[in-house]
Amino acid sequence: RKKWKRVVGVLKELEESCETTVGRLRQVVDAMAVEMHAGLASEGGSKLKMLLTFVDNLPSGSEKGIFYALDLGGTNFRVLRVELGGQRSDLDPDVEQQPIPEQLMTGRSEDLFDFIASSLHRFVEKGNDSVQSSITKELGFTFSFPVKQTSVSSGVLIKWTKAFAIKDMVGKEVAGALQQALARKGLNMRVAVLVNDTVGTLALGHYHDADTVAAVIIGTGTNACYWERTDAIIKCQGLLTTSGRMVVNMEWGNFWSSHLPRTSYDIDLDAESPNPNDQGFEKMISGMYLGDIVRRVILRMSEESDIFGPLSSRLYVSFALRTPAMAAMHKDDSPELTEVARILQDVLDIPDVPLKARKLVVKICDVVTRRAARLAAAGIVGILKKIGRDGSGGITGGRSKSDIKMRRTAVAVEGSLYTQYTMFREYLHEALHEILGEDIVRHVVINVTEDGSGTGAALLAASHSSSG
Ligand code: ADP
């Protein structure tokens, strides 16, 4: 009995340290808006990099023609073609996906780009489009690694992440390397835009809904971008664009604030990660980490009691419990929680867990996901606040709520956490309601986009094409 009491104590402590009252969330909202300002004020002024994208117009639906895109960011890479008729329509892109051979991820940049250009060559031919046509085809390139952009169609690789490590590419111009490979293959194509995946999501969101002002990705990792006024980008004085605006890639996964509710599990997870002190917001929110936070809590409970039986060595394995398995336990509503029992046994090697303890596991999943979803919601409201769409009249405030005519405001969202994890999505919506209030939240629309990273890049190639 005493041991059960200890486990309940662990849960209570978890709940308290994950507390996200509306008051707390509003502090996170304010911190996000303040950090956005700081990141725009000077290079290195905030943990938020607030990267310039030079994307100064967003697809409207009037684009016409055939456009291509390449999407490189994970182990798979994709080639796409969209045909645009000059009127907003359901896009039905041709897509081909293939894995990048492992040796190319760590070899020479020329080999990687030759491989990409060959795939594109085959894809264009297969689509009965002439490869050497005298008309230059416009190509959007989604490259989901940190890039310092120098224009909408050029930028220098800051560093590789994920499984890529091609030394001769760091510090080099990314679109130029691709452009040269296209020339070697005799492809008459121009890299019209070089973009990050969130920017593609914003482009696709805006194509379908012209009120879209921001895009958020919540999948393996998390990031956001939004539509900013150029005069607010103080670190780049004199920046002129026709629209007077530019998309800013926040790299919000690296956001940090003392108002974020942090637990000992977060501290351990961060310390044992390959990038300690980095991506703090992402480590509380995204799919890569949520399952591992839950594993750490179960481990603690197992160490402090025997309600999970003898200590399983699997509990010591980082990332042994993945977020999809966590979501499956969370949504188990069978009276005996049979799915929870199965996953504890199959994934964590913990057999014969009593029902009472299974219920506890569901509760842990709930606490961890609820915090994640509510923090993501606070991040979104932070962006709305920064651009004066949270109903408060902007960060300087002053006007009363009744003075404000709140405009319809749409946010494009993509990623499996939002689309596949029902509880995550519901908690996110609930928090938006709580933070913004009923009067404001009814003007805020969340639109789910699909494959924005690829399709959006093709759309941006269209809206930034040399033919206008
Ligand atoms: P990306 O890897 O490009 O971000 P996704 O948006 O599909 O792709 O996100 C994948 C991540 O989402 C996985 O790493 C996993 O953590 C999480 N995930 C996938 N399916 C589910 C699910 N059913 N429930 C909860 N999380 C999921």
UniProtKB/TrEMBL annotation:
Pathway(s) per entry: Carbohydrate metabolism; hexose metabolism; Carbohydrate degradation; glycolysis; D-glyceraldehyde 3-phosphate and glycerone phosphate from D-glucose: step 1/4
Keyword Amino-acid biosynthesis assigned: no
Annotated Hexokinase C-terminal domain residues: 214-462
Family statement drawn from the similarity comment of this UniProt entry: Belongs to the hexokinase family.
CDD domains per record: ASKHA_NBD_HK_plant (cd24020)
Organism: Hibiscus sabdariffa
Protein name, entry field: Phosphotransferase
Entry's EC annotation: 2.7.1.-
Protein keywords: ATP-binding, Glycolysis, Kinase, Nucleotide-binding, Transferase
Domain Hexokinase N-terminal span(s) in chain numbering: 11-207
Coiled coil: none
Top-level division of the source organism's lineage: Eukaryota
SUPFAM superfamilies: Actin-like ATPase domain
Top-rank EC class of the record's enzyme: transferase
Any Pfam family the entry gives: Hexokinase_2
